[in-house]
Amino acid sequence: MKRQLWPVRLLLLFAASCLLNAPASAQWNQWKPIDPAHVALPAPTIDKSADAEALFWEVYVNDANQDTEYLHYLRVKIFTERGKETQGKVELPYFNNVQIKDITARTIKPDGTIIELKKDAIFDREVVKFGKFKIKVKSFAMPAVEPGVIIEYRWREVRQNQMADNVPLQFQREIPVQNVRYYLKPYPYATQPMKSMTFQTRGQMNNFVKAKDGYWLTEMNNVPAFHEEPYMPPENQVRTWMLVYYAADRKQAPQQYWQEIGKVFYEVTKADMKVNDEVRKAAAEAIGDAATPEQKLERLFNFCRTKIKNLSDDASGYTPEQLQKLKDNKSPADTLKRGYGWGSNINGLFAALATAAGFDARYAVTSDRSRSFFDANFLNLYFMRGSNIAVKVGEQWRFFDPASTYVPFGMLRWQEEGIKTLIADNKEATFVPTPLSPPEKSLSKRVARLKLNEDGSLEGVVRVEYTGHAAVEFKEDYDDATPAQREEKLKNAVQSRLGCELSEIKIEPPNDPVKPFVYSYKIKAPGYAERTGKRLFLQPAFFQKGIAPLFSTNTREHDIYFHYAWLEQDDVEIELPAGYALDNAEAPASFPIGDFGNYKVTLGLTADQKILVYHRDFKFGGLIFPKSNYAPLKQAFDTLHQQDNHAITLKQGVAAVK
Q1: Higher pLDDT, 78 or 28
Q2: Is residue 424 within 8 Å of residue 265, measured between CB atoms?
Q3: Residue 489: is its pLDDT beyond 70?
Q4: What pLDDT shows up at residue 130?
Q5: Which residues pair with 389 in a beta bridge?
Q6: Nearest of 434, 365, 423 to residue 399 by alpha carbon
Q7: Tell me: the pLDDT tens digits for 580-634?
Q8: Cα 115 from Cα 194, distance rounded (Å)
Q9: Which residues are CB-neighbours of 447 under 8 A, at least 6 positions away?
Q10: Are strands 458-466 and 443-452 parallel, antiparallel or unpaired?
Q11: Distance CA 109, CA 144 (A)
Q12: What Å distances lie between residue 388 and 274, 294, 355, 398, CA to CA?
C-alpha cells in the first residue's frame, strides 16, 4: 500500500497533540512523527562507517499483570546497500511460553512516500527443537528498502506467567543506536522493590526517572554497535545490557550474603540427597570390590550414568508426550526405583550414594562462564544457576556431574571448570575453585593412511578419535541425529575443505557416555597435490588443509577467549607415487607459544623411501587473553597456520635420497 506523507509540519502538530495525553501503550501503538532532520540525514552520527543507524529503540515493559508484556518500537535509517541487506530482513525469535504478535512495519522514502508491510508478508517458522523446548522465529522483509529510506517496526512480546524478575534488557544492536529507552512498570504487589544493574556500560546512561502511568524511564544515548568476533568472551561480558530484578535492600558484605545462600541451599537440597536402606544397598553393590576412594566414586558415577535414564538428555528416547506422563521423583530412592530422572535427580542420587559410602557429599552451586564471568560482589543469584556435586576426598573437594551425559568422570562441563563454586553448608559455606582439565584430557587423535597418485589425487583411510570436552561437543551435536544425518554432517565437514569423495563412513554410536567419539572413512581427493611439469607440491598436514587462519583481522575489539585447553595429535602416512622422490622436503618448524602451548612436527621417509611419515602435535592451554595481547597471539596462530600449510616438493625421476 502506498500513500503520500502529509506535509511534515502538519504531521508533527497533529501527532504531538494526539500523543500528549495518550497512555503509554497507546503511544506505542501509534507511529511517532518523522523528524525532517532524520529524513535528510546524509550520514550516520555515531559511527561514520556504519551502514545503518537506529534513530531510536523504545521498549515498554509492563510487569503489572500475570503476563509480562514488552512493547518494542524500532526506527532505523539506511545509508548503504549493505545496510539495506542487513536491516531489510527482520527476524524476531521467541520460545516456549512467549508470544510475538501485533507486528506492524513500514518504509518511509525520502520523498515522503510510505509503504506499509502487508500482513501476509509475515512468516512463522520453527528453527530449534530440544525436547519440550522450541525456538521459533517471526520474520518479514521490509518493503522497498534502499539507501536513504527510514524503516520502522513495532511488535508485542508477551511472556506468559512470568514476572520481569532477573530479566536481561539489551541496549546494543548490530548497528549504532542514537537513543535507547526502556519504560518499566513494576509489579504492584511485589514484596520487594524492583532493582536494576547495568553491565558493560557504553554510551551516555541516565538513571531511572518517573514517567506516566506507573512507568519508570531509563535511557542511553549514542550507543555504539555491537560487533561479534570469533573467540570472544560471552556476550554478557562485552555487550551493554541491564538486569532487572526484585530484591530487598541489602546492606551486607558479599561474604555474609553468600554464607546465607550456602546455608539455604544446604537446607533445601537435603531431601534431594537423602539416604535410605535401598540407597545404601545400591551403593554397596555398585562399589563392589573397589578399594580406593577414586575407584569407589568412579563406580558410583558410572552406576548413575548407566542405570538411570537421563530425561534431561535430548537423546533419552522419550517423546514430549511420554515425558509429561512420567511421575516426578521426590527422593533418590524414587530415582533408583524408577530407573529414570531429570539431571537434578541423577546428581542427587550420586550424592546420596556417595554419602551412603561414607563420603561427605554436598551440592555445589555454580555459575556458567559461557554466559558470564561470576562476580561475588554482585549480590544476586542470577549468575549462579547451575549445580554439581562436591565430594570431600582427603582434604580436598572433588567435583562431579553425572547429569551431564557425556562429561567424563573427573571432569565438569567446560562451562563450569576454572570458576568459583559455592559448596552448600549449614554452618560455613565456602567458595572453592573448580579445576581446569589439562590439554591431554581433550585429545583429538587423527590417523590417515593415504596414497598419492601421479595425477595429484589422494586416496586412503582416515580415523579420528576425540576425548574430553572435544568429544562432548561432537556427541551433543550427533546424538539425536539419524545415522544418515550423521553421515551427511561428516561429509559436509570434510568436503567443505577438501572437495573430496567419502565412502565406507563409520561413526561409532555417539551416545556412549564413556567411550571416545570416533569416526572413520575412505577418501578420494582429486587435485590434493598441485602438479607442475614433473613436480608435485604436497601439503603433508592432511587434517589442516583447507582450514582458514584462526584470526583474520588485524585489529581486535574484544578480549580473546578459548573455552578449554586441548591437544591435537596427527599421524599421517602418504605413499608416494612410483618414480617420484623428495626434491625439497624441509620439515615445518616447531615452536613454543609462550607458556601456553607448543607446536611440534616431524617429517621423514620410511627406510624404503616409499612412504612419507608426518607427525604433528599441537597443545594449547591458554584461556583468556587481553586484547592488548592480540598482535602476538595472532602472530603465533598465523605462524601455526603457515607451518600447517607448508608444502614439500616431489620430482619425477629424481634418485631417492639414501
Answers
A1: 78
A2: yes
A3: yes
A4: 57
A5: 363, 400
A6: 434
A7: 999 877 888 999 998 999 999 999 999 999 999 999 999 999 999 999 999 999 9
A8: 41
A9: 462, 463, 464, 570, 571, 572
A10: antiparallel
A11: 9
A12: 16, 17, 15, 10
Please work out, in degrees rounded to the nearest 5, the angle formed at the alpha carbon of residue 178 by the alpha carbons of 177 and 182. 75
Angle of CA points 477, 483, 488, to nearest 5°: 70
For 333-363, the DSSP string reads HHHHHHSEE-HHHHHHHHHHHHHHTT-EEEE
One-letter identity of residue 8? V
d(CA 411, CA 398): 9
Q: Measure the CA angle with vertex 413, ends 566 and 235; round to 5°.
A: 85
SS3 per-residue string spanning 563-582: CCCEEEEEEEEEECCCCEEE
The reported pLDDT for the residue numbered 66 is: 84
Give the CA-trace dihedral at 229, 235, 238, 240, to 10 degrees.
Answer: 130
Mean pLDDT for the chain overall: 91
Region 206-232 average pLDDT:
93
Say if CB 555 and CB 599 are below 8 A apart: no
Please, which residues bridge with residue 444 across strands? Answer: 466, 568
Cell of 381: 543469584
Residue 484: pLDDT band (50, 70, 90) is very high
For residues 161 and 65, what is the distance between their CA atoms, to the nearest angstrom?
A: 9
384 near 359, Cβ under 8 Å? no
Report the run of H or E that residue 112 belongs to, with start and end: none
Read off φ and ψ for residue 411, nearest 5 degrees.
-125, 160
Tell me: pLDDT of 87 over 70. yes
Identify which of 583, 653, 552 has the alpha carbon closest to the alpha carbon of residue 231.
552
Angle between helical axes of 343-356 and 277-287 (0-180°, round to 10): 80
Which secondary-structure segment (H or E) carries 259?
helix 254-269
For the cut 80, the answer to whether the pLDDT of residue 480 exceeds it is yes
Residue 15, pLDDT above cutoff 60: no
- State the cell numbers at 110: 525520502
Q: What is the DSSP letter of 43?
A: S
C-alpha cell at 10: 502538519
